[in-house]
Amino acid sequence: MPGQKFGPAWFPGLIAVGLAIGGALLVLKAHRRSLPWVQLPPWIHRRNARNGIAALVIGLLAYILLADRVGFHLAGIVLLTLWARVLGASWRTAGLVGIVGTVVIHLAFYKLLRVPLPWGVLERFAF
Q: What is the DSSP secondary-structure string of the chain?
């Protein structure tokens, strides 16, 4: 919002610091009890779980690389649709999740937080 002393990175940075402190405390607690730092849950060995994790990581990397060129809106629709599909939704449901989810995220950032998202190739249609 105009007139703030804090920039748009302040809140995510504050959350990152809190998560880092919490993670460090968990590691120290595990170290005192001589527990392994990383212990994978049994469900991680299922194929669907590995596919979901791979889709998430690949999708986030693709978004980071393409968001400025393609734009949040197109990238969001494609990513949310594919992620819903990987999680087992039908194409119809996945498409609906992609479109509605992208619109909700856009409105949350644009109207509530007043943070513009990149329009990319849709820039000439932006209002």
A: -TT-SS-TTHHHHHHHHHHHHHHHHHHHHHHHTT--S----GGGGSHHHHHHHHHHHHHHHHHHHHHHHH-HHHHHHHHHHHHHHHTT--HHHHHHHHHHHHHHHHHIIIIIS--PPP-GGGGGG--
| 118 and 124 Cβ atoms separated by less than 8 Å | no
**What average pLDDT is seen over the chain?**
88
Residue 95 amino acid letter: G
36 pLDDT higher than 80: no
Task: Give the pTM.
Answer: 0.68
Rounded Cα distance, 36 and 87, in Å: 30
Quick one: pLDDT band at residue 34, thresholds 50, 70, 90? Answer: confident
pLDDT band at 4 (very low <50, low <70, confident <90, very high): low
Domain spans, the chain: 8-39, 43-121
Task: Give the torsion through C-alpha atoms of 120, 124, 126, 127, to 10 deg.
Answer: 160
